[in-house]
């Protein structure tokens, strides 16, 4: 083993041992980050190869074609998370082909043909050769014009075509379209679904993934601290958002993990208020739901602040109810618990307090490569999963909205807040504001 390899292994072991440590740890005790390949902040190619091997073991036979399915946003191209999870490859238009029954070559990476004119606009791409194969960890890299031919050959020897990604209303079913073409030329081939297999794999995070998510959380928390001076009477929602995002990018985050929500007064009751264009006033609440993405991993954090620095009696009653709902759900987090049972327990707290009609969304979701991450919500939680707990009460007629959202790691001993760097109870929120905002 090389020195670098030894160092990487030591870091992995260290992070395994610190992963399930006691709650209340400081940021300096966070697990060590895995070695990242720059640019792109990917893990080593062997990490993705191991995931492909695990998926092929589940397949057993046949062929799986997984398209990149990424999308452009204001910060550039973001790779589709299923494809990224299995390859670490950030290229647009790429395709992964897996064929576990093959004797020698079981995995193929297909990349679009080079286009010298397009590369003048978006940057040079590498030719297929030893350097690219080593960088991506694939022995076989082809151009995408060979996709149908390749799939026909592989399916001819093992005639099952696997749908790996969960079907979604947003993504084009490119795999199913290709399988239709294959089936039209190769009678007897069957199309089958891998069901929740890949979602299940993605939701059970490795120690390295959890370290990356913890880093995303720490960067996000630093954004809240930087934004705190802008939380004040006659402050501007947009300034809160801008300060946080400036700090995130300076710390290596590629983009916000989702469109930042900074809503004061009436806007605090709009769940996904997108505009951050209002001036906040004394006596109002400010809901801030914003977090960074680091190395493709999301954080997801919401805090609610009194603009004047102190909650009114009515605001405090609502705030304490939301907090109690979160704490009640948190106490139930452990391997074997069901997300829907957490949701029901939190909902009961809010209903019993008389606010049942004002909690109009679900309690939470998985977090990982996506902010609303893959996962089998109908199955029991397992150690290594990360979920949000985000109860909220929104009373439009009072211009009063409260949401508290934390990212919680499931450990054998129960839930552990990854987001332990920001205040949560009402007094701590007031004290934190007093310490961080503009005097
Ligand atoms: Mn969320």
List keywords for this structure.
17% strand, 19 strands, binds manganese (II) ion, disordered N terminus, 3-stranded antiparallel sheet, Creatine Amidinohydrolase, 6-stranded mixed sheet, Creatine Amidinohydrolase, Chain A, domain 1, 2 domains, 439 residues, alpha+beta
Describe the structure.
There is one protein chain. With 439 residues, the chain is of the alpha+beta class. It folds into two domains: 33-195, Creatine Amidinohydrolase, Chain A, domain 1 (3-Layer(aba) Sandwich); 204-436, Creatine Amidinohydrolase. Helix content is 37%, strand content 17%. The chain is built from 13 helices and 19 strands. The chain has helices at residues 3-19, 45-59, 81-87, 116-122, 130-136, 147-157, 174-185, 197-203, 207-227, 237-250, 313-330, 339-352, 426-436; strands at 63-67, 71-73, 76-78, 95-98, 107-111, 141-143, 160-163, 190-193, 255-256, 261-264, 285-289, 292-294, 297-298, 302-306, 386-389, 392-395, 400-403, 406-411, 414-417. The strands form six sheets. Strands 6-5-4-1-7-8 form a six-stranded mixed sheet, with helices on both faces. It has a three-stranded antiparallel sheet with strand order 9-12-13. The chain has a three-stranded antiparallel sheet with strand order 10-11-14. The longest helix is centred in the middle third of the chain and has 21 residues, at 207-227. Residues 1-25 have low confidence and may be disordered. Bound molecules: manganese (II) ion. Residues 300, 365, 388, 390, 405 line the site of manganese (II) ion.
